[in-house]
Every structure is written in structure tokens, then in C-alpha cells.
Sequence to fold (125 residues):
Amino acid sequence: MGYPDAELSIVFLDNAGIQQINCEYLQRDRPTNVISFAMQEGEGAGLVPLLLGDVVISAERAASDAVEADIPFLHEIWFLLLHGILHLVGYDHERGTAAEADLMEAKEAEVFALLLQEFSLEVEC
Fold:
């Protein structure tokens, strides 16, 4: 995706922790599954060119979403991490157009399929 030497931080929280962040920074008083804070956007963008930002994931929400979707927990964690990273590198499904949302969804599907293949994330019996 054009950032071979970039860095990011990954934080895992419970629902209460991510709800607090969601409320404080996005004015949404509810837990969510993933939040990204891009360091290459807005004020201060480019000050540290190799630092993409932070991805915050609710492991509690990921676990319940995985059960609901009948998928392995690690698949959900990998997908949320991928989703967060795509936000860090400029993809947006919320503030952009429907075409931009479709582009992000297509990139998610493409990269997630590669992750499944590359890291043998298939379910083992």
C-alpha cells in the first residue's frame, strides 16, 4: 500500500475502554469494534512521515462479533486490524462517497484474502 517502512501502534481494549475513547474523540457514546487515529492527516500531518497512527480494537466486541458471524475470533481481529490500517492510509467508508466506500470494501476483501492465504488463517480442526 505504499508504506513499506511505516509504523503504527495497536491497542486492544474492552468495550468500556473503547467506548470512552469513542465518546471523547468522536462524540459517540457507545462501544465500537475499531477506531483509527491517522497521523498523516490534519494538523501535524507529515511531521513523522513513517508513523501512520494508532489502531484501537475492542477485543470484547471482536469476540462477540465473531460469535455472531460464526467466524474464528482471530479472523475478526485480523479483519479489524486491516480495516483500521486502511483508514490510516487514506481509505474512508464513512466521510466519503459511495464509490470510496466500495473501493475500501474491495481493498479489504483483496488484502484479507491474501492474509488468509499467506498466514494460513484457515480454520484448523
Notes: The helical segments are 15-26, 59-69, 73-88, 98-118. Residues 8-118 form a domain with the Collagenase (Catalytic Domain) fold (CATH 3.40.390.30).
